[in-house]
């Protein structure tokens, strides 16, 4: 006698075979729709309806139908193909490689700063604005690249676009080392900046893809520390290379590093963008059912629509970063403040050689070592943020009946808004009075801590608020901050010559207080209300 379990298994197997058989003749039918003709009452038990996958078809485990269209989704909350469910080791490997891409990009942006005068001397350039553009033109490229690379990553996937962009950067960075004129360097720096910009929005998107909200604090800490530490370490290395060798090796050495990171990415970096991964799964199911891959009317993912056309997808994706800036007050407010912070970063980079070579009369290599004080502030603040960010988030989430909010990432930003103006004041006035060199270094360290805490807080907030399209949201912010990173160093020499380091630092500190100190408090009280006005934030 057959058992009840045998009967259920036989019925379920028969049902799955019917689905497969029907699928093979779908294109020959006039309606082209999947339907389950077997009445529900004939089944000996109720089939749970959740999602369709290749495993579903083979084992009869999971099926989901919305009306007459089959929707492809993850195989439940524990699906190992979902990047959110990857082992921690795999997530950290991916995060470390992403940090390598951002580190190389920011090292390239800042490493040339101490060598800029050497480049100008070789090509006979005396204009201070043109000399500053040797450094800042790379940052101008970083302003525009994300507007295209970020939406492309939401079509073709994070991994492929990131690695293509890195190759583009590598080609033009090598060309910088072989430049024959100042004009060539400026043009090649812009092009290499375009390629080097991709990690900033895409890496944030990857972190949003594979790290859960209560786990993102430490991942964001590493992701944010890498580029900022690269900004600090680059000039140290660049100063010694410029003194002991040729400025051309500033570019060739970073190209070697970029090549190593590119190889690691090819070997270990895997795709994380959920819509693309599910689309690949849907394609495998369509192939098994005999459905053409571009037909969305019968089998598609939860992110696709029947009218899905490549041209409309591409147009929407390219427009998305601009649309986010126009219609999202979160992007406008936090983006503008982050732009100011990033402008201060590059203003500091271009000012330190003048302080320690001009005021304290250190030679190039020794003056470059003072960039390490910026790195000290970054490391200390990063350790503080990494150790408490997730704890604070989980604590506030538990107090809110287990519901997390992006605003729960703001408490550590409060300290950053205080450190930033404090560091500007201390650095400016101790340099003005030619106090012992350790005092400007302490001010620079405090300044670095403020930069890091602010940037980490803003990036984490944006990633959590714009989950699926976090890459496009970060692209908008990256564009804004890179424009100020390009522009601030251009007016810095004239400002310091006219006002001195003390008054200039006071003006910048006042702006930091006015723009920054109210920000975390305003978003803490009104951030949720602002987000509810949005069309793009995560649920």
TrEMBL record:
Keywords: Membrane, Transmembrane, Transmembrane helix. It is a multi-pass membrane protein. PROSITE patterns: MFS (PS50850). InterPro entries: MFS, MFS_dom, MFS_trans_sf. Residues 94-528 form the Major facilitator superfamily (MFS) profile domain. It is found in: Membrane. One of its GO terms (molecular function) is transmembrane transporter activity. It comes from the Eukaryota. The chain crosses the membrane at residues 92-116, 128-150, 220-241, 247-269, 330-349, 369-388, 408-429, 435-455, 467-492, 504-524. This is MFS polyamine transporter.
């Amino acid at each position: 006698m057959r058992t009840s379990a045998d009967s259920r298994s036989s019925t379920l197997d028969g049902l799955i075979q019917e689905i497969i058989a029907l699928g093979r003749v779908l294109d020959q039918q006039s309606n082209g729709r999947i339907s389950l003709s077997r009445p529900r009452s004939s089944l000996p038990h109720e089939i749970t309806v959740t999602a369709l996958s290749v495993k579903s078809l083979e084992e009869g485990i999971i099926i989901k139908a919305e009306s007459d269209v089959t929707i492809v989704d993850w195989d439940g909350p524990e699906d190992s193909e979902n990047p959110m469910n990857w082992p921690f080791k795999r997530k950290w490997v991916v995060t470390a490689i992403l940090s390598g891409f951002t580190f190389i990009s920011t090292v390239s942006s800042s490493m040339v700063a101490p060598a800029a005068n050497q480049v100008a001397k070789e090509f006979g350039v005396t204009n201070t604005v043109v000399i500053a553009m040797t450094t800042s033109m790379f940052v101008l490229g970083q302003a525009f690249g994300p507007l295209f690379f970020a939406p492309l990553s939401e079509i073709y996937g994070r991994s492929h676009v990131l690695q293509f962009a890195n190759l583009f950067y590598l080609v033009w960075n090598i060309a910088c080392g072989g430049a024959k004129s100042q004009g060539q360097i400026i043009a090649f720096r812009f092009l290499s900046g375009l390629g080097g910009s991709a990690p900033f929005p895409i890496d944030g998107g990857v972190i949003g893809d594979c790290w859960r909200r209560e786990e993102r604090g430490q991942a964001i800490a590493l992701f944010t520390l890498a580029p900022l530490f690269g900004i600090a370490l680059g000039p140290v290395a660049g100063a010694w290379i410029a003194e002991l060798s040729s400025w051309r090796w500033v570019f060739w050495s970073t190209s070697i590093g970029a090549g190593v990171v590119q190889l690691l990415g090819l070997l270990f970096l895997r795709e994380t963008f959920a819509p693309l991964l599910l689309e690949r799964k849907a394609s495998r199911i369509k192939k098994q059912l005999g459905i053409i891959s571009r037909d969305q009317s019968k089998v598609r993912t939860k992110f696709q629509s029947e009218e899905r056309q490549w041209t409309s997808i591409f147009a929407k994706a390219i427009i998305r970063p601009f649309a986010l800036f126009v219609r999202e007050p979160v992007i406008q407010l936090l983006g503008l403040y982050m732009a100011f912070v990033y402008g201060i970063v590059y203003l500091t980079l271009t000012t330190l050689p003048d302080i320690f070579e001009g005021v304290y009369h250190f030679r190039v290599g020794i003056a470059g070592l003072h960039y390490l004080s910026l790195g000290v502030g970054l490391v200390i603040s990063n350790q503080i943020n990494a150790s408490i960010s997730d704890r604070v988030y989980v604590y506030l989430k538990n107090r809110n009946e287990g519901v997390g909010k992006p605003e729960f990432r703001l408490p550590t930003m409060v300290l950053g808004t205080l450190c930033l103006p404090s560091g500007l004041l201390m650095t400016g006035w101790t340099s003005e009075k030619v106090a012992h060199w350790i005092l400007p270094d302490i001010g620079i360290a405090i300044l670095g801590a403020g930069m890091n805490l602010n940037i980490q807080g803003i990036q984490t907030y944006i990633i959590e608020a714009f989950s699926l399209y976090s890459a496009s949201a970060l692209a908008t912010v990256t564009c804004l901050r890179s424009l100020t990173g390009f522009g601030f160093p251009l007016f810095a020499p004239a400002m310091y010559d006219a006002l001195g380091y003390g008054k200039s630092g006071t003006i910048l500190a006042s702006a930091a207080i006015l723009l920054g100190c109210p920000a975390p408090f305003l978003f803490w009280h009104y951030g949720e209300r602002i987000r509810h006005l949005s069309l793009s934030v995560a649920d």
